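Board notes (copied after class):
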Amino acid sequence: MVDGERPGRDGPSAIDHRPSTGSLKELVAKVLELLPNATCRVELENREQVLAHAAGAAVKNFVRVRPGDRVCVELSPHDPGRGRIIRILKGS
């Protein structure tokens, strides 16, 4: 074993399948309606509507998202119709 390696972390399970942060698009959107399971319908600045769910610190800190709020949405590279709300913008 080489210094810095941990046992059991060199197989296929150690591969990170998450997309790199450079491939995700962050856009400003406005919340249109709240849907079940912490999902929201948001409208992007280009008038496109996508489904987004709260992620990261918004979930951890029980941040309330309301219709009319301006939010920052990270779009999925695999499905541009879905995204994650990563933060609520001030001055909504």
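Comment from the instructor: The mean pLDDT is 80. Helices lie at 57-60.
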